Amino acid sequence: MDNKKVIIIGAGVSGLVAAINLENEGIHPIIYDKNDRVGGRVQTDYIDGQAFDKGFQILLPNYPAVQKYLDVRLLHLKYFASGAFVFKKGYQSKLGNPAKGFDLLFSTLFSKLASFSDKLKIIKLYRSLKYKSFEEIFESPSQSTMSYLKSFGFSNKVIHNFFRPFYAGVFLEENLETSSRMFEFTFKLFSESKAGIPEKGIQAIPNQLANQLKKTTFHFNTAINKVEDKTIWLSNGSKEKADFIIIATEPSQLITNLNNQQSLWKSVDNLYFEVKNRVVNLPMIALIAENDTFVNNFHYASLASESQQILSVSVVKTHDLSREELVKKVKNELYDICDIEVKKLLKHYKIPKALPQIHDLNYQMPHTETKIKDNIYLAGDVLSNGSLNAAMLNGESAAKALIEQYNGLTLDMA
Ligand SMILES: Cc1cc2nc3c(=O)[nH]c(=O)nc-3n(C[C@H](O)[C@H](O)[C@H](O)COP(=O)(O)OP(=O)(O)OC[C@H]3O[C@@H](n4cnc5c(N)ncnc54)[C@H](O)[C@@H]3O)c2cc1C
């Protein structure tokens, strides 16, 4: 069934999952990507044996799409303990879901970061989401996460000390304006499974997807400028015709009449430092719960046993500081609030397009809605919500729609 030419633009996880689904139907797609490798926003640089993920990103193994497309065992995830280690000036404590495990029960119950009533509400929220399906979550009325937390009855204290810094790091925005659907979705996932990073870095995820592809052709370092009439225009001026095209990235840059519908994006800075000391001995995400700090969260990218201690720091706050100014601010905050002494900066990634800002979030784009023009389909997280789960599911949706039309055409020809 490989006599028709199918082109996919984008070798991110969405384009790769689309290709897996096409190969399963005997179609051999051709993927173009402007980058030099697979992964899109999921990338790792390897320097002297150390993995530097381009942006702090975690895998929730209970994402339904992950269970479908990845062999999680082979990723050898390094799991984080659930909850977070919270730093405030002169105070530090662990906080998590007390219903989730003995390790966190006592520290959470005795933590001064939340009232007793807040701790009971965390359990109530966990129970209320336990039997709510992901589809139901994304069909629920949407409000900002901040107003959701307030209307659930959480105190300003726990919002300030835990929810705001934790979810600022997840949503990559400080005011928790992101839809309550995304909050319920991620809260449920976090409370039902630990999050982890593959031993070889986050790039192991797209690499594993790409390794499943046996009949797909890749063209890297090849930007596409325009898609029109089943034709793609390459940045070198040449063009390629196809029978079907899947655009697995923001489409507005490629399709002329979508030019005015560009996505808005949330940004993040990710800095890696070699540090002198280790102040969190558990594998745990640490947060700074102070107003107006640049550091939102950090974790040790190295194991306690390793001689070089590497700290990965995320800055969610939008700013126009130079690298030097930002590094100075971050170093001071790490020292003043967390007692961490920085030896030197190892890496700095500025990621202007990290997560799409989507107003009306959905769980997965129905396959019947992925077709944008004759024989042209859309995929990518930008259609639904900024997550690996949505990126994979939308790759699947686009492929499914294409396969249905492909099969229809093949039948017509017979
Ligand atoms: C810092 C950061 C933290 C994140 N944290 C998490 C997290 O913890 N958990 C989670 O689930 N998700 C997280 N995400 C989101 C997740 O990475 C994305 O949802 C997912 O990778 C999107 O995949 P995609 O294939 O839809 O898009 P992309 O990864 O953006 O892939 C699009 C591809 O298209 C290519 N492309 C674009 N334009 C062109 C062109 N004109 N010509 C040729 N090629 C082109 C790009 O090079 C890219 O490879 C995070 C993302 C970032 C950046």
TrEMBL record:
Transmembrane residue ranges: none
PANTHER family: AMINE OXIDASE
Domain Amine oxidase: 13-403
Protein name, as recorded: FAD-dependent oxidoreductase
Lineage: Bacteria, Pseudomonadati, Bacteroidota, Flavobacteriia, Flavobacteriales
Single annotated GO MF: oxidoreductase activity
InterPro entries: Amino_oxidase, FAD/NAD-bd_sf
One Pfam family this sequence matches: Amino_oxidase
